[in-house]
Specification:
single chain; alpha+beta; eight-stranded antiparallel β-barrel; about 35% strand; 8 strands
Length: about 140
């Protein structure tokens, strides 16, 4: 019976969407210092944090919310070195651009108070970054 319960719990955990996997390049000034974001099935890599494990908290269509495992070294490239706790990623309609919101805590994510927001994009995407995307999207760490 315990095996069945464990399987039921595992199957209820949202999976990482296929569209999220791969490398994403920063378009926004706030994320240029973090460089390329690489996302796998259950790990991500950014400047200063390689293969950081995460769990998918929610996945709904073109939006996914990740919670980094405790003890990960992922942090923003700001003076205070804000630790990344929760990351919300939203694929734009052009299927090339990715809105990224980073939260210092689960509580901040619930209140929708990001520490930083910006835009990433797929390398070599046919549409490329919108000419105005980096300039018009919120890029200031909060």
């Amino acid at each position: 019976m315990n095996t069945l319960l464990a399987l039921a719990l595992l199957s209820s955990t949202p999976a990482t969407p296929d569209w999220l996997a791969g490398d994403w390049d920063p378009y926004s000034n706030a994320f240029l210092g973090l460089r390329t974001l690489s996302i796998g099935k259950d790990t991500l890599s950014w400047k200063g944090c390689a293969d950081a494990r995460f769990e998918v908290l929610a996945s709904d269509g073109d939006s996914v919310t990740l919670r980094l495992a405790p003890g990960t070294t992922c942090s923003l490239d700001d003076v205070a070195r804000t630790r990344m706790d929760t990351v919300r990623l939203t694929l734009r309609p052009n299927r090339c651009d990715l809105g990224v919101s980073i939260y210092a805590s689960a509580e901040a994510a619930k209140r929708n108070e990001p520490s930083a927001e910006g835009l990433y994009g797929k390398p070599k995407c046919p549409s490329g970054p919108a000419a105005h995307a980096a300039a018009s999207f919120s890029t200031t760490p909060r």
